[in-house]
Batch of 2 targets.
Target 1
Amino acid sequence: MREIEQKIHPNLPPTTVWGYDGQYPGPTIEAQQGEPVYVRWMNKLPNEHLLPVDETIHSSKIPYDSTGVRVVTHLHGGNVEHTSDGKPTAWFTRDFEQTGPKFKKKDYYYVNDQPPATLWYHDHSLGITRLNVYAGLAGLYLLRNDREESLGLPSGEYEIPLVLQDRSFNDDGSLFYPTARSGTDSDSPNPNPSIVSQFFGDTSVVNGKAWPRLSVDPRKYRFRILNGSNCRFYNLKLFEYNESDGTTGAGGPPFTLVGNDGGLLASPVTIEDRLEIGTGKRADVVVDFSDYAGQTLLVHNDAAAPYRGPDINTGEQQPLPDVMLVDVAADDVDDPSQVPSTLAEVPEIPVDSVDEERYLPMTMSSDEYGRPLHLLGSEAESSPHKLYDPVTEEPTLNDTEIWSFANLTGMSHPMHMHLVHFQVLGRQPYSEYDPEAETIDIESLEPPAPEEMGWNDVVTANPGEVTHVIVHFGGFEGLFNDQTGWYMWHCHMLEHEDHDMMRPFRVLPYSGGDNDDGS
Ligand code: C2O
Ligand code: CU
């Protein structure tokens, strides 16, 4: 991780960013299932942070007055040992001069014993994740295998990663990140700088370029789309675009979803309208441009920010409609690629095997400065928990559980679990949910959206609803692998995650007893 200057847009002076291996976003790591990878993530960043650091966040746990920037890299979606998971307290400063309490090793071990998938890596340092990721510390990690290769999906130059982020810039090209909450003034009791409730940038950045355009041939492409924004959701659709007057015309080619967070779907799903990609999520899609030779298309986003619910009317609404342009070449080309009707085995986790159902309320509170705080709880009556409260979610290896996220706040939150991939069972209004009931009537739930098929590690929990996911801890039907120890679950809006909307969970070994799980 180094500080570098990068040209984000031709009309903007170079921007100072932080990159892995000197680039933002970081290099795409390509790994093969069954071939483990070791990575030594090395911190070569300057002593001072690039962005305003609010030292009131987890102030009793973070040595803010000591030198150096704390980083730690998490492999998001990685079914990995806990000592290589990159948990927030496993941070380290430049050249490992200082390390956090849960730092265990320099060389992270990724066993790659899970289905091929679009994973990503990003910083996860305690209390400053939002700033480290915003500065540029994120990249893709594509896990492949021969079976997937043999499907004949578009590959090579026709397989393109798209890292979607929103950023704001100052006139001199530097990254803009707010130092204070909007609507507060200098005589408010807020710390300065202060964490903001949410961050939404005014500029679409794709693969480190502002409002880019992509040239394609009139044929099929596979796009590995990552929503790597701090807080923003995307709801994407392609439109024909008239550049002379900047207007959109008819809808363009649909997205054909072939995979999401945790790997390929059982069969492809054509997204008829908008493709929702929550913060932190991935969409593995094929788009066929063959009917659009010679045209320009716009990748359009209509997701509100914040996303859904009463809070979208609070005045901080920051839509970002234009994501990028796609220029389709005029000349026909051969296209030997295909999208087979069967992609992978995705066995359903059986609901009748559930060992535990967890009612997980998400509520609003405020911190000691009166700033809004989104918190996670484990029971209706008890007060919600902060990050450092004792662990309340302790599944045993090989257990199957339903996690029911009950969103009692005013906006949608993208809920993420480390280590595992879950299946979305469905949603119901909060008023119809009875946490005391013995079983959940799956039939009565609003079924998952088409883009929520298969294996997910982030799910959109909408306000006023309970979102149920089913998860198995450990290997399942030959997929994934057994891991025990401490991991995190949290909202993937990074300002929320940094501000206590994050909790540990701990996978216990079958027999209780001792294991080195870093507790
Ligand atoms: Cu991508 Cu704990 O996060
Ligand atoms: Cu949140």
Target 2
Amino acid sequence: MSHAGHAGAAGDSRHSDKSPRVANRAKPARLAEMSNFDIVNHYFDLAADRIDVPEDLRAVLRSAYREVQVQIPLRQADGKVHVYSGYRVQHNGARGPYKGGVRFHPEVDLDEVRALASLMTWKTAIVGVPFGGAKGGINCPVDDLSKAELQKITRSFMDKIEKVLGPTRDIPAPDVNTNAQVMAWMMDEYGKLHGHTPAIVTGKPISLGGSYGREAATGRGLIYLFREAAPALGLAPSESRVVIQGFGNVGGWAGRIVQGLGAKVIGVSDAHGAVHSEAGIACDELHEHLRAGGKLAEFRGVDVITADELIALECEVFIPAALGGMIHGANAESMNCRMILEGANSPTTPAADALLHDKGVTIVPDVLANAGGVVVSYFEWVQNLQHFRWDEREVNDKLGTIMRRSYREVSARASEQAVSLRIAAYELGIERVMEAAKARGYIEDGPEG
Ligand code: NAD
């Protein structure tokens, strides 16, 4: 969330959107078929069946270790007290402290946070960083809140959940509509109770112990994977057309980095609309335009299209980088790409996944594709614990090494077992979590020992 219109980026003024609205007709429907929780459990079950996870263990691995829900009342400018709900779900901590982002969005609910927390468990295991999985969120209407109101909500949330957090317990990070500023408030609030503790959150501003490269890390990680996966599909990044759904932190950085490789970004959308230019959209300039408060539809040289038209654009790579469930049974058939790089969490429903598989589209799944953020969050945490800062080149090099290695491990397994990258990734993740849980004595071997 590093662009205009979000917490911390827009000063204290309320976000008024008086520009001509392409929003409603361009806004795609999400979660058409299943909840995020059902989507994640569907993929988990497919992989668990294949590696014969016993039913009783599945019940442990599907459910969360701890779920915290707190009340966040706020008196707003209308003079009324509004009550929001905050959540922190700690899914599985067998491999290390819980780790996962915090999302501010009116549609956040316990079910969604549970799903996102379990994705983090598999993701951290797949890329081999020593964390468990967690997620948090508040169901607040970010676009209608002032910066001061967002700060109050964030601090109140931290006050109410701090007992289950800690640098060796659970370390939050940014996600949809939260950014370095929100992390700074969280760190500061935690520090009032526990003393200065930079390692309590990652994705902080550089001035407060944030890591170089963290803001771009998820988008950069996606593009490292694109480079790694492209040759097998006969794709060359410099000759590829890319479409990005959701031009926020992840989508915005992925666009800027892939353009640096010579690719053409021909379609982009955000919560307010979608645009197209066959000649290519300059992502650096678009980023600045949005940061300055401009609208996507007002950017130079683009045609406004609908969200459904964006999904159907002919391209080599489609990057979903908005919310879950946006590629579903009703729109997947219209897709016209060779590869989907899942920047968003849980963007593809099982019906769409099967349909796209039949169409021969390669999907690099969320649990692998967007892990760059948590990898550099791990680097940030390590730097904070060591009180030592790495330069950006070192961060990016180490990120590249981990992303490429993870891709090779997942794709080797997918080829050996003749399964999709998604199922291979889940299998690897589940096996690693089970191994750690067994070593700790949480899971017993069967009667045979
Ligand atoms: P963000 O808030 O910075 O950006 C989200 C973008 O999606 C914004 O441009 C918003 O306008 C757009 N959007 C919202 N609703 C939309 C809609 N209906 N149609 C099209 N666009 C829409 O959030 P982010 O941090 O970039 O996260 C994006 C996705 O990536 C989420 O699914 C998140 O869970 C996932 N993710 C983020 C990180 C990270 O490091 N930030 C890491 C891993 C995964």
